[in-house]
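Minutes, project check-in
Item: structure for the 231-residue chain
Input as provided by the requester:
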Amino acid sequence: MRKDVGGLKADRASTILRDEILFRTRPPGAQLTEQALAADLGCSQGTVREALMRLAEEGLVERRGYRGTVVTETTLDEAAEMVRIRLSIEAQVARRLARDGLGAAASEIDALLAAMDAAHDAGDLSRCSDLDRAFHTRLCRAAGLPLLCPVLARAALHMHRFTLGGVEVARAFREEAGVGHEHRALLEAVCQATPDTAAHAMAEHVATVLRRWAPSLHGAVGEAAFAPQPR
């Protein structure tokens, strides 16, 4: 797992801990103490406290006062609801982008895609996960829906608890086509389509990920949820 993340100390600590939770190095129910984490990460307890507060805001840990902090569990039912929320938001994002295009966001989106390629070439699945969420939230902002970005990011994050780490299906990451390749295809399908076709392309993108890596979650969501209604 990543131990060389740059940036501020709390950023670094929260990134490492987030990875460990997503990849289940720290499984649901694991107890987290500031003192032990500070020693493990080589930082102060204040830095750990700030990192845990960030993770609590994301729903990955629960702070229980004097009883300490534990890693949460995203249940299958909760994850399915989050996927449905994500599909609702991303359908509107796709429709707006099909109508209006990327505009000034195009260069930033290109940079994210290039970073995805580099992360895939480096075999860094953790970084690819970060960039995947950054890509989709950037599209959401480009579509003029900035207040929905935190909701979308949280839904995608908890979906990743099911798709990362080979929980259901073992991953051969180096043999995959790569997130950059898949997101370029998605972007082309969205930006060169009618609004309804773009919404279907976005839904199929999410469905493909779940069918491939988390079939139980795909089944819990239900196939009908991946067919956006025409507008």
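Outcome recorded: The longest strand covers residues 61-63.
No further action items on this chain.
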